[in-house]
Specification:
Number of strands: 7
CATH architecture of the largest domain: Orthogonal Bundle
Distance between the termini: 57 Å
Strand content: 5-15%
CATH topology of the largest domain: Fic-like fold
CATH class of the largest domain: Mainly Alpha
Radius of gyration: 25 Å
CATH superfamily of the largest domain: Fido-like domain
Strand order of the largest sheet: 5-7-6
Number of domains: 3
Number of helices: 19
Length: 447
């Protein structure tokens, strides 16, 4: 069964009656329309708007919806994204978009609010934390069943995946690392898209048990709810997809004919939507779409997004994520629904990151001072103790400590050796690896 949005009925009032009501309640009506598109309300479709109160008296919700639609249409901007009938998707530059972008750009070009004290010591750890969280959440959105705790343990210990879910998470982690490394400096072309998709889907299989690949001419893909079978999207035909991928690459390389400025965050979200809408591959489209979002922002210098696992917040509201696609596609190609949803998730990710930094600073300032003065531990060692205290089942090894902190083997050996000698770590050998876990002495530091 194909899901279809509720369509409003024709307004009960005739145009003459509607014009008379509007002339007497102009300010009230315009205020209502403004609230419908506000940060507090969100960018509403009719199914939500019809319950919005207080509403102007004497006018049906269907009539109000007509005015809302007219207001949006008059402000809409065309995108290069098209449907199979050749109709362009459009978007509205909402007032709160500008405020959000201003705050983001004023913060050193997307650096987010990373404190300057201890910046160099913290940056690598925070990037790894953000990339891990994004890799896990983006994979879980696509069905990976591994828990967050087990996934982080696998990535930290650089253990080989034991099933497809773990493989998906590892692949996502590696593509995020690749984006943060070399990919952000590459120009997008079909080879790059294929390379990224190949890395995202390495050693995994699609729903037919085959290696994920570009769709063939006779293949139709439906995006549906596995529980109740509702179809939310039918992917366009392959010939159309091939043509549109060329347009997408021009857009991603900032080579589109319309050279009017679009904020990089808006463009990144558009790339996310575009790949999801086209669904060019038999599997891995969602992960690729979210990866391209990060690729474009890091390419444009917004490297602070390395800290922000946006998919972690998307995962908390999967139905709304799906519906943001549906609203955009079924309400006259209005992409604002998808933009609004993603900007809210980015804002939430930034707020959570700020809160995390403040909590860490408040929680650990006194402890850090005492440990540094008494034992002379460095920032890496203190962060390891904090991690082990926060995760009682957590552990590390030499390779993990080197990887997380970006340090040499000798530096990592010295870090772990002094912690072991002071009695904060216990070691156990498993195969070729020596693993380190916390002792009761660590817990006493945080009391």
């Amino acid at each position: 069964m194909i899901f279809e949005l509720e369509k409003p009925k024709q307004p009960k009032e005739k145009m003459k009656e509607l014009a008379m009501i509007f002339s007497h309640q102009k300010e009230e009506v315009l205020d209502f329309v403004k609230k419908i598109d506000s940060w507090d309300s969100g960018y509403m479709y009719f199914d939500k708007m019809k319950y919005k109160e207080p509403a102007p008296q004497g006018m049906s919700k269907e009539s109000l919806w007509e005015i809302v639609k007219f207001s949006r249409h008059s402000r809409s901007l065309k995108t290069p994204i098209k449907d199979e009938d050749g109709n362009h998707f459009k978007w509205v530059k909402l007032d709160y978009f500008e405020e959000f972008f201003h705050e983001l750009d004023m913060n050193t070009g997307g650096e987010v609010s990373l404190p300057k004290d201890g910046y160099r010591a913290d940056s690598q750890r925070l990037i790894v934390r953000g990339i891990m969280e994004e890799a896990i959440a983006s994979s879980q959105l696509e069905g990976a069943a591994t828990s967050r705790q087990e996934a982080k343990k696998m990535l930290r210990e650089q253990r080989r995946p034991t099933n497809q879910s773990e493989q998906m998470i590892l692949n996502n982690y590696l593509i995020m690392k690749a984006i943060e490394g070399d990919y952000k400096d590459r120009r997008m072309d079909m080879d790059m898209i294929m390379d990224m998709h190949s890395l995202i889907t390495k050693n995994t299989f699609d729903s037919q048990g085959e290696k994920p690949r570009l769709r063939n001419d006779n293949e139709t893909v439906y995006i549906n709810d596995d529980v109740n079978g509702i179809i939310y999207h039918k992917a366009p035909g392959v010939d159309f997809v091939k043509r549109e991928l060329k347009e997408l690459m021009c857009f991603a390389n900032d080579e589109e004919e319309n050279d009017s400025f679009i904020h990089p965050v808006i463009k990144a979200i558009m790339l996310h939507f575009w790949i999801g809408y086209l669904h060019p591959f038999t599997d891995g489209n969602g992960r690729l779409a979210r990866s391209l979002f990060y690729w474009y922002l890091l390419k444009k210098g917004y490297w602070g997004f390395s800290y922000l696992p946006v998919s972690k917040n998307i995962k908390r509201s999967v139905k709304r994520y799906i519906m943001s696609y549906v609203y955009s596609e079924q309400d006259d190609n209005d992409l604002t629904y998808f933009l609004d949803y993603n900007i809210r998730k980015i804002r939430l990710a930034i707020d959570e990151f700020d809160t995390y930094l403040k909590q860490q600073a408040e929680k650990n300032s006194d402890m850090k001072k005492g440990v540094t003065e008494r034992y002379g531990f460095n920032e890496r060692q203190i962060q390891l103790l904090q991690y082990l205290h926060g995760d009682q089942g957590g552990r590390t090894n030499l390779k993990t400590h080197m990887h997380i902190n970006g340090v040499s083997k000798m530096t990592a050996i010295n870090d772990l050796k002094s912690l072991l000698e002071e009695g904060f770590l216990a070691s156990v050998k498993q195969g070729r690896n020596v693993y380190y876990s916390s002792t009761e002495k660590v817990n006493k530091l945080f009391k």
